[in-house]
Structures are given as structure tokens and as C-alpha cells.
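pasting for the record
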Amino acid sequence: RFHSGNFLAKELGISRTSIWKHVSGLSGLGIPIDAVSGRGYRLVRSLELLDETLIRPALTHDVIEATGAFYIHDRIDSTNRFLSSLPAGPGLKGAICLAESQTAGKGRGGRRWISPFGNNVYMSLAWQYPDGPACVSGLSLAVGVAAVRALVAMGITDLGLKWPNDILWHGKKLGGILIELWGEAQGPCTIVVGLGLNYAMSAAEGAAIEQEWVDLDTINNRSKPGRNRLVASLINEILPAVANFDQSGLMPFLSEWRALDCMHGKTVDLHLAGHEISGIVSGISDEGLIQLYTSDRELRSFASGEVSFHPRRG
């Protein structure tokens, strides 16, 4: 609704000049505001800020027990980077970081993750394992399944997964996962799981994204969940998947991941360091490796790389 400058100044106990400056500051954050002479100011679209007091009560008992420190930032360079900068130790296990915006959010391959204020979900979770990095092979696939479970619980359907870390809706990117880890080869190791999810983003805000994308506002505008409720659902699914992964591995998630596989049977290019391999996707192995039938009809498995798909090639 519109509120006049006089009304806002009286409510907040500041001058109208200060109101104008604050509104300008909000516009500088990328929050669109209508300013109409004689009517005042209003938000162009509703804005639900993240609130720990709304998120925590929606978490399950087991998840609350496993959750560590909880951080919510108005603006930060990167939620992954924030958790990675904290000292290793028991206090880092289960720590969660959320942000309204990121100035240096990053996706796979060092790409910039577009992070407008208050529109999307930017979340990172830290965990520590007693063993080395080998114990978390395939973790990004398990996190992808967990994220889809959370979205389905919120009424979002027709989702898919693209190896190794993209969440898609009808072939368009809805979200992405970035896992970073460090530690000794034989353990222990620390991981930070980052998740970016498009909640409500304008065409102008998403113009710099290099691939087709979609947001929940487009998918399910009238009944999409609130951001706090959505974050709680994501934590309820992702944290247990991460916490138990060194014991359970990928196996509990394999059948679901394969059912959600958007690339199966498609001709793709797999970009590796310095070269490219084309082939038809045969799915993933039990270890989470992507499997391709290459031009020589050989079935080959790959642990890393970036997949690009060309619809014209089938």
C-alpha cells in the first residue's frame, strides 16, 4: 500500500528528508519502489525478510538438535565464503548462513551467482566429517534430491536434476548447489554446502544469467510458499542428508536422482579441463559418476566436468 512521506516520518520519528534518503537507499539495494506525488511510496512487490524466529519453529526436533550457529545477513559477499572463514571446530558443525543479498555470490566454475536483495534464497550449511574428502563423493547429488524433496513438500512439481548440481523446472534453471571442502586426505574434513534458489526475480535482475532460468514466482505465483517457510523446508531435508552422508552414502538417493535425471538419453558436451567430450548420457553410476556413450560407442564414466545440452541435437 502507499504511505505518505509525512505518515512514515511521524511513524518513525524522523524527518521527511530522512525518509527520502532511506527510500533512495532501498532503491540502491535493488528494491523497486513506486513514488507517486500526492500518494507517497510503496513496494512494487511484497517483501518477506528472513527471520530466524520464523524459521526455527518450523524445523523438526532432530534438525534443531543438529543445527549449530545461525547467521542471517542483510548483505554479504558470499554465504559460502562466510562459513568457510569461520574457525574449524565443533562450533562450525551444523552452522547455517543465510543472506538477503550477496555481492560476490558464486556458482560452479567461478561464475557469478546473481543475488538481488530479498528476492531469492542464498543459503549455506557447514558440516564436519571424521574422515577425508573421499567420504563425501556424490554429496552434491544427495543435496539435489533433498532440495527437490523440500520443494515438492511446498507444492512445487515438474522438477528435475542436471548432473552434478543444478535444479531445473521444465529444463530451466531454478537453483544450483556449490560444495566446497577442505581437510586432510585421511580426515577430518569440513564441507560447506551452498544453495541458491530463484524465488522471485525480475527479467532485468536475471538478464546477466547465461542460461535459461525460472523462479518460483513464475512457476507458482499465487500459492508459492513464503521465504521463511521455504527455507525451513530446505533445512529440514538438506541438513539430515548432509549429516548422515558419511554413513549412508549416495545409495538412499540414487533411485530418486535417476528418476529426476533431465539429461538421460540426451546428446551432451562434457567440458573438462582443456578439452571436450561429446556423448549420449546413460545416467549415473552407483558412485554418482556421469556415464556417457561416446562416439566410439564406449561407455565411459566421469567424476567431474560441466555438461551442456543442445536441444537441436536431441
